[in-house]
Amino acid sequence: MPAAAPRRSGPESAGAALGRHRDFRRYLTGQTASVAGSSISSMALPVLAVLELDASTAQVAWLMFLGQLPPALLALHAGALADRHAKRRQMIIGDLVCAVALATVPAAAAMDALTLAQLMAVAAVQGAAGVVHDAAAISLLPSLVDRSRIQRSNSHIGALYAIAATAGSNLGAALTALLGPARALLGDIGSFLISAWCTARIRAREPNRVRSDGRQLRADIGEGLRYVHADHRLSVLTWVNATTSFALAMLNTLWALYLLRVLEMSATAFGVVLGLGALGAATGALSAPALARRFGPGPMMLAALAITPLTQIPLLLASPGLGWEIPIGAALFLQLACAGAAGTTQRSIRQIITVEGMRARMQAVSTWLTSGARPVAALLAGGLGTWAGVRPTLIGGTFLLVVPFAVLACSPLRGLRQMPDPPPSPAGPTEPSPPRLGPARTGDSCPDPSLDGGAA
């Protein structure tokens, strides 16, 4: 007999329950620290390469490319591993490998032995370990909270991630100025250790794991690809993610160049615009559950995808001067608010409708497609920008943002009025595990900051 659907909590009770949930606080604290730390590295590594190692433009591009390549190559394998093995252990190993690899940079710099080749190797290792960690982290969340709280959990995560990324970039700039770029990386090393410590303190037992039965990993990967392809809802949302990622990667490749060079925006104004974008992402993520309840998840995501191309209009019409900086900042706020609302909602839907033994592989398919799209889009943007100019390339990227809207508009998901029900538990060769942990008791809490009310 199918299990009874879990009792739905209202918005206030759900939020309060998450605030008292020890395991969710530990999870959120660790992941937020990791996001902030990664933003420090994103700021410090290019500075270290350019100023300390005198890297050329091509060498800096290779450094960025090697950091982005592992998700495209390893996401499917990492997802299959996360469905086979303990997710928390995989997350901790990923964090510790990142910390050790990154620690070699300030150590080598202190001995005056740092080379660009080492920096590239560290970027590649860190990228690979990050893929292993993220595949397990994203698929672990549904086992920590009840189904009725998945969307609100993703809302908290999306908002905090947006704020943490901006705070990490600012902290990275400050540490780079005070300590130098090599020692600034100590902040990211510390963030990985915090993430590993918080993950180790999660007490909830994980759900069923897939038994390998001697099968090769590629068999599990193929099963994950077929699973996503067979479910039209997963397939549609995955292609929405991939096409959105491709279009935004084209725009983002030339966006900073366009603002700073063509529109002659000052560094201060550019920083303010980025801050508005982060605030928009947090606002969209936090408002997603309420918008989904009011309008339905399908219509809300469709509206967000329809608004996103329109937010590019001020950028395309702008000319140098303060009069355009305010509309551009407002447009970026709205664009990332739409991305935050739609992103947290589609991720929640995918987590809810996927059976427990397939969540990591389902997420890995989306990561593989979106990560693979970004380098291709960046190369295309660079070629078109050189051949046709920056503004025509941005216009082309804006038109590509219509594609994910069309994909969702042609799907029955456009009319989804409420969050879907979870699938029945599959009958398969899995290891039994105790039921997932409900809201934690308020006593014996982890010494994490309160994250109640706090983010693809």
From TrEMBL:
SUPFAM superfamilies according to UniProt: MFS general substrate transporter (SSF103473)
Record's subcellular location: Cell membrane
Topology of this chain in the membrane: Multi-pass membrane protein
Residue stretches spanning the membrane: 27-48, 60-80, 92-111, 123-145, 157-178, 236-260, 266-288, 324-344, 365-388, 394-413
Chain intervals with Pro residues compositional bias: 420-437
UniProt organism field: Streptomyces botrytidirepellens
Pfam families found in the cross-reference section: MFS_1
Name assigned to this protein: MFS transporter
Entries under InterPro entries matching the protein: MFS, MFS_trans_sf
Listed CDD domains: MFS_MefA_like
Ranges for region Disordered: 417-456
